[in-house]
Amino acid sequence: MTELIRNSLRQRKTAIVAYCLAGLGLILLYVAIYPSLQAQIGSYNQLVKALPATLLKAFGVNATQTDFEGLLGTKQYGLVWPLLCIFYMVSLAGVAIAGEIEKTTIGLWLAAPLSRLKIYWSKFVTSLLALVVFVLLSVLAVIPIAGLFKVHVTDAHIFALTAISFLFGFCITGLAFFASAIFSEKSRVYATVGSVLLIMYVLNILAAISSNLVDLKYLSFFYYYNASDLLAGQPISHLGILIFGLAGIVFGLAGANIFKRRDISI
Amino acid sequence: MKPAIKVQNLRKHFGSVKAVDGATFDVPQGKVFGFLGPNGAGKTTTIQCLMDFIRPTSGTVTILGLDARNDSVELKKKIGYLPSGSHVYDNWTGQQHIDFLTAIRGASPDARLIDRLGLNTGVRVKKLSSGNRQKLEIVLAFLGSPELVIMDEPTRGLDPILQNELYKIIGEFKAGGGTVFMSSHNLPEVEKACDSIALINGGKIVVEETLQSLRAKSIHHISVIFDKTVDPQKYLLPGVSLIHHSGHSLTLRAKGEIEPIMRLICQQKFTELEVAHASLEEVFLEMTR
Question: In Å, how far is B189's CA from the nearest CA of chain A?
Answer without folding.
Answer: 24
